[in-house]
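Q: What structure does this chain adopt?
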Amino acid sequence: MSSFEFTLVTILGCGFVTWLSRVLPFILLKKLTLPKIVVEYLSFVPLVIMSALWFSNLFVQHLGHLPAVNWENLGASVPTILAAILTKNLLLIVLVGIISLAAIQLIL
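A:
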């Protein structure tokens, strides 16, 4: 097998596995009903993932030193959090975050 064929098979295999891992839960859960406690537990997953991504981007790691605050991201977080509290509209929250970070980078 040539390296091109190997690369192509690898990419197609990875794509299939990724697709399967995203579609299989929908297929399995279509016929099942989860208990209320499980559904309530799973409702926190998006919030936890977004919080972890947000928190990890607030700091910049320098080897041999303590993490430093990323002031641009922290500054853009303030209007974004306010938009989240006031509107609870995901599209608006994302737009406010992007626009505020772009404005901060334009100013600095």
